[in-house]
Amino acid sequence: MWVFNNNSFVSAVEHRSDPSMLVVRARAEGDLERFFIDGEKITVEVHPERDYLFRTIVEKSRFAKVLVQHALGISYPNFKGSIANGDEDRHDAYLNVWSAMYTFQRWMSEKTKWPKNPKHGAKGTA
């Protein structure tokens, strides 16, 4: 699972030998600490030989609780606009992801001939 927050990006996968645990990974220093806003300590390991440089291991239930905290803390109408001034590198990286997924949406809508009902979502802003 990839999780993009306005101040952190993490990737979570199941631990190979303990299905109750997750390996939560980050590419930027400090992202794991910024993601875990529950006040509990995490131990970050650095793995220069791996695709994600920073890693921590946590219980799945803790990760789920932190996700809920982030969801309840959303207070912005535009995600990309919520990225702090001075964090242009993160903004630009997220914009690249947004662009790739917008292209994917266009490919999929052409492939499936969506929207089948032109009124569906016509007034929505999501």
Summarize the helices and strands and which ones pair or pack.
Blueprint: E1 2-5, E2 8-14, E3 21-26, H1 31-35, E4 45-46, E5 54-59, H2 60-72, H3 88-112
- What is the number of strand segments? 5
Give the end-to-end Cα distance, rounded to a whole number of Å.
21 Å
Oligomeric state of this protein: single chain
Beta-strand share of residues = 15-25%
Instruction: List low-confidence stretches.
Output: none
Tell me the series of helices and strands, N- to C-terminal. EEEHEEHH
Main sheet?
A: 5 strands, antiparallel
Question: In which order are the strands of the major sheet placed?
Answer: 1-2-3-5-4
Descriptive key words:
about 130 residues; alpha+beta; 2 domains; five-stranded antiparallel sheet; 3 helices; 5 strands; about 35% helix; globular
Quick structural overview:
With 126 residues, the chain is an alpha+beta fold. It is 34% helix and 20% strand. The model has no long low-confidence stretch (mean pLDDT 92).
3D architecture notes:
With 126 residues, this protein is an alpha+beta fold. The chain folds into two domains: 1-75, no CATH class; 79-114. The protein has helices at residues 31-35, 60-72, 88-112, and strands at residues 2-5, 8-14, 21-26, 45-46, 54-59. It is globular and about 50 Å long. The two termini are 21 Å apart.
